[in-house]
Amino acid sequence: MSAESSFDKGTRRGVLLLNLGSPRTPDKTDVKRYLTEFLMDPYVIDSPWLIRKILVSGLIVPFRANNTSHAYQTIWRTDEPGSPLLWHSHMLKTALKEQVPFPVELAMRYGSPSISSGLTSLLEQNITEVLLLPLYPHHATSTRTTSIKAVQQQLNQIDSSVQCRVIPPFYNDSSYINALAAQCRPALSDALDLLLFSYHGLPERQITRADPTGQHCLQQPDCCERPSIAHATCYRHQVFETSRLVAGALGLEPEHYQISFQSRLGRLPWLTPNTEDVLHQLPEQGIKRIAVTCPAFVADNLETLEEIDIRGRETFMQAGGESFTLLPCLNSSQSFVKALADWCLEPPPQTDFDSCVL
Predict the structure, then answer these.
(1) Looking at residue 104, which CATH number applies to its domain?
(2) Same domain, 287 and 197
(3) Distance CA 62, CA 83 (A)
(4) Both 192 and 281 in a single domain?
(5) Cβ distance 15 to 100 under 8 Å?
(6) CA-to-CA distance for 163 and 130, rounded, in angstroms?
């Protein structure tokens, strides 16, 4: 199938890259504004509005703003944009524009550049179809669903006649897997004891609520290995599958890699094991030389550069570790840009709003 065959006659396509976002600056005021916008999203904290408001404005943001501001300051770049996530996302946009024959814009679910500005810029270039590319490999209501819903809402307000197609989760796409394996391969050697796959965590109830059967996810220890339609919206299954496929591409035996979940927030049960706990325990098990990859993120950000490479490294080394390597996210690597370009030219099937917002 040629590149042109994916276009309907007369269609003028534009691509919108969409990532999560970051504060405008690492200052406390901007961090508080960003955290409030992010955490007040009902897809992130799925409590009733009043409870969410009390939790976010009364408890979480006041107590986290100082620490989060300090964390951002440790990784903030001196150039523009200073946010590593935003910088890498802009680099990705620039690289992708060189590979596709239509407009490409960047937006963030929270903060700037806004979804509205990205869509407006595309529409000013007379496009008739938006191809939305959420930069989240795995399905989660707190990332993909909220982002797709927000784009749908904004597009309906700006120009409801424009069609929108959505790239589905790409957690098991061979191009994504090969790109991840290429990022990991340089760190593999006889001296390495373990490759740790650290994924952003989720509350367990977000996993069970996304289960369309209501009877599969987290009901059995091996639920992610047992075939089910629930896997289409199961974050846990999808990260396990990514890890299995990358490990296979690298020729790793099961004892040479492990999966954990980072960035826990609040007291609700979250996916386990917790990355911080794993990093503390590994040296006690004789595993003292590790590399860490964070495949839930396609661009390096606070969770990779500060949480893992600074605090996680310190936890591991103080527990008796000898060697700690954080592997970079895909960022604007040539293999990842090529994968995105291929998807843009030939979007995978099931890319309409109804099939992607689950």
Answers:
(1) 3.40.50.1400
(2) yes
(3) 22
(4) yes
(5) yes
(6) 6
Question: Are 229 and 351 found together in one domain?
Answer: no
Which residue segment(s) compose the domain that 143 sits in?
3-170+334-356
Q: What is the pLDDT of residues 67-95, one digit of tens each?
A: 999 999 999 999 989 999 999 999 999 99
First-to-last alpha carbon distance for the chain, in angstroms, is 29
Class of residue 91 by CB neighbours under 10 A (exposed 0-12, middle 13-18, buried 19+): middle
Pair (148, 214) in one structural domain: no
Count of domains in the chain? 2
Q: Are residues 69 and 131 in the same domain?
A: yes
Q: What is the pLDDT of residue 84?
A: 98
Residues 25 and 67 reside in one and the same domain: yes
- Chain segment 8-50, per-residue pLDDT in tens: 556 799 999 999 999 999 999 999 999 999 999 999 999 999 9
Residue 58: CB atoms within 10 Å: 10
For residue 335, give both structure tokens.
């293999």
SS3 232: helix
Segment 240-263, tens digit of pLDDT? 999 999 999 999 999 999 999 999
Please give the model's pTM, rounded to 2 decimal places.
0.94
DSSP letter at 203 equals: B
Q: Give the E-state strand segments of 84-136 in sequence order.
A: 104-108, 129-134
pLDDT tops 60 at residue 230: yes
pLDDT in tens, 180-209: 999 999 999 889 999 999 999 999 999 999
d(CA 46, CA 15): 30
For residues 275 and 320, membership in a common domain is answered with yes
Q: Is the peptide bond before 347 cis (omega within 30 degrees of 0)?
A: no
Same domain, 345 and 259: no
